[in-house]
Amino acid sequence: MQARLNTFGTPTGAKFTKYLIAASRVLHEADVPVPTLHLVEIRASQINGCAFCLDMHTKDALAAGESAARLNLVAAWREATCFTEAERAALELAEAGTRLADSAGVSEEVWASAAKHYDEDQLATLVAQIALINAFNRGNVMVRNPAGDYVPGQFDSVA
To answer: What percent of the chain has pLDDT over 90?
Structure first.
């Protein structure tokens, strides 16, 4: 499989992608645990069917020390006992924020659950992370970026 478009191969695509990668760095330097951000990236990517992002974020999570067992259970996080209550709240927010068309948006209950575990800056980080991974997912799915060849840290020098 070959991508329909090399986003780094056009001036606008390259600039835009570099800004998205820079935004991701900002979020990963914020005060939400990086393992939680990885879980959010993975869950949204599962929902959106973005193989490229799943390949990237599972490999990055493994390289950062996440266990394969937890990564294998992200899709079934409600039934899995290996996630903390804070992680569950972040995963629930990620699902609600990714599936906006399936409901009336993020419910008060979902927001309250997240707010119980995260302060305002952390909530801002989670909201931005969910929006950002959805942007990456949609772009990658549209251009059909193939999965499987990602190497952890591959985009560290970009941006």
So the answer is: 87
